[in-house]
Amino acid sequence: MHSTFRTFNPNFKEAILKKIDGQHFMHHIGFHIHTIEPGLIIGAMPIENHLKQNTGFLHGGLVATLADIVAGFSASSLLPAGFHVVTGELKISYLNPGLGQTVEAKGYVLKQGRKIYFCEAEIYCNNAGQASLIAKATTTMIVVSAEEIQGKKSQD
Length: 156
Known about the structure:
This protein has helices at 12-21, 24-29, 60-76, 146-155; strands at residues 32-37, 40-46, 83-94, 102-111, 116-127, 130-145. By secondary structure, it is an alpha+beta fold.
């Protein structure tokens, strides 16, 4: 599961918090990160009606979004200052219906590389005190520099 990884930024928590400030969609859906450790990110949110699909389950697209958020931030926690990750690949398996009062998402790094990080995410629903694993994702995160991001923005 989660191993101890070396972060290249001694101020990684502050860097993650700054990146979280810019995550407008994450704030829009009410997702909050409560655990920030090297290679491990955990967050949670209440399950509200507007987050459900027509059968009353947590929407699958939202579940994938939560997996993407925590996996990406788990990789970001290990990066040097001035670097970011973008999702290169995300594969998600839905294991159980998303039912309950809250959802918790945990992302962690499996393998740390120079340009590619392999991460996983687990999504749990909490229903009356019982946690159920509803989805598991594997991701490939691609490391990009701030300069590369600025270059792409200026091309648009």
